[in-house]
Amino acid sequence: MRQASGTLLVTAPRQGLHLITDAVAGWVAGQGVGEGLLTLMIRHTSASLLIQENAAPAARRDLENWLARIAPESRDFEHDDEGPDDMPAHLRSVLTATTLSIPVQDGRMRLGTWQGIYLCEHRRQPSGREIAAHLLGA
Amino acid sequence: MRQASGTLLVTAPRQGLHLITDAVAGWVAGQGVGEGLLTLMIRHTSASLLIQENAAPAARRDLENWLARIAPESRDFEHDDEGPDDMPAHLRSVLTATTLSIPVQDGRMRLGTWQGIYLCEHRRQPSGREIAAHLLGA
Amino acid sequence: MRQASGTLLVTAPRQGLHLITDAVAGWVAGQGVGEGLLTLMIRHTSASLLIQENAAPAARRDLENWLARIAPESRDFEHDDEGPDDMPAHLRSVLTATTLSIPVQDGRMRLGTWQGIYLCEHRRQPSGREIAAHLLGA
């Protein structure tokens, strides 16, 4: 049994959901672990992770619109130091995931056929995001 | 230290939340690991996992109703290839969990007295669901 | 590779979000593991865990208010055995997290600069809460 730690650096092209499955799969494949457990943790509070439908752009757009309805930009927030998209970014992060745990077999994540891993960039102005990665296995 | 990987196959009797604690506990008990970490990941994007109140049917019904209010069937979704319950199923999956990490001791999950593990079937027409299971420990 | 299991006992001073980062970091530091994986699972269904903004009290208040809007106290719940804050406490737990997985390096959690770990106490009358902790590494 052994372990590997790393950091994935990703920058979204714009606000919204962006597939990063290939980047994660590449990192996992490079560690030489056949069976094990992958952990991902985004090191930010205004961006997040999500496992969701990987094929239909319409599903992605519906999801983005729904997040915007549930956690809308509003004048009612007390915390707006960095603009009107500041607090909604935190709330949309809460609705999605900060940490993910993914079983690995034959050197690959055991995702279902329709599952992809998304970086959710909740700020209007994207910036570089760090995802801490940890793989444990044999 | 050693690990075990498996797949739990479950089919919900109908749309909604269904306790699968016993099936998960049975799989864990069969691996002969005393202390360790259990990871569950559902391999679908229109069904999900949840740890919640295991005793009161009324709490389960309130939870189902609340999910239906927060992520309602609506004509406003662009993605409706598989019917009006398609996109809400994805959203209700986002609100709940795709992966769970559960510490194990004495061969048993360390769930609290009132905690149960639910399969959340968000489609009206249930189908067979795969849950990837991984147990690491000694 | 080795592992450690423990229980963190925490009581919130009042309903809402309370930082417990230091208590968790202390437990991790005491296990003598340099690199590894920390898992936290709260053993309750009316309190939860969350990784979010650790610095701005206004962000914390906005988050508490938003949870109260999305999962409000209401007369419409069937399950109210323990009062009007009973069912909303379960729903706010669903919106946040029951389990967290956090990579560890150099004996410290790899949290980002602005990330803190919160105990979310959703009942009006706080009680002692148990958080199962598991650390695996070397």
Care to give the gist of this entry?
Three copies of one chain form a homotrimer. Chain A is α+β, with helices and mostly antiparallel strands and 138 residues long. In chain A, 24% of the residues lie in helices and 38% in strands.
What does this structure look like?
Chains A, B, C: It comes from Sphingomonas glaciei. Chains A, B, C: Belongs to the UPF0047 family. Three copies of one chain form a homotrimer. Chain A contains three helices and eight strands. The first copy, chain A, is α+β, with helices and mostly antiparallel strands and about 140 residues long. Chain A has a single domain (about 1-135), classed as Sandwich (Jelly Rolls). A five-stranded antiparallel sheet of chain A has the order 1-8-3-5-6, with helices on one face. Chain A has a three-stranded antiparallel sheet with strand order 2-7-4, with helices on both faces. The longest helix of chain A is centred in the middle third of the chain and has 14 residues, at about 55-70. The radius of gyration of chain A is 16 Å and the shape is elongated.
Instruction: Specify the CATH architecture of chain A.
Output: Sandwich
Query: How many separate domains make up the residues of chain A?
Result: 1
Strand order of the largest sheet of chain A: 1-8-3-5-6
Q: Into which percentage range does the β-strand content of chain A fall?
A: 35-45%
Question: How would you state the average pLDDT of chain A, rounded?
Answer: 97
Derived from helix and strand composition plus strand pairing, the structural class of chain A reads alpha+beta
**CATH secondary-structure class of chain A:** Mainly Beta
Provide a count of the helices of chain A.
3
Q: Sheet bearing the most strands of chain A, described?
A: 5 strands, antiparallel
- Uncertain runs of chain A are none
Note the run of SSEs of chain A as H and E. EEHEEHHEEEE
Taking the alpha carbons of the first and last residues of chain A, their distance comes to: 5 Å
Task: Give the largest interface.
Answer: A-B, 32 and 32 residues
CATH fold naming of chain A = Jelly Rolls
Task: Classify the oligomer.
Answer: homotrimer
Radius of gyration of chain A, whole Å: 16 Å
* Helix proportion of chain A: 10-25%
Structural shape of chain A: elongated
What's the total number of strands of chain A? 8
Write the CATH homologous superfamily of chain A.
Answer: YjbQ-like
Protein name (chains A, B, C): Secondary thiamine-phosphate synthase enzyme YjbQ
InterPro entries (chains A, B, C): UPF0047_YjbQ-like, YjbQ-like_sf
Family (chains A, B, C): Belongs to the UPF0047 family.
Organism (chains A, B, C): Sphingomonas glaciei
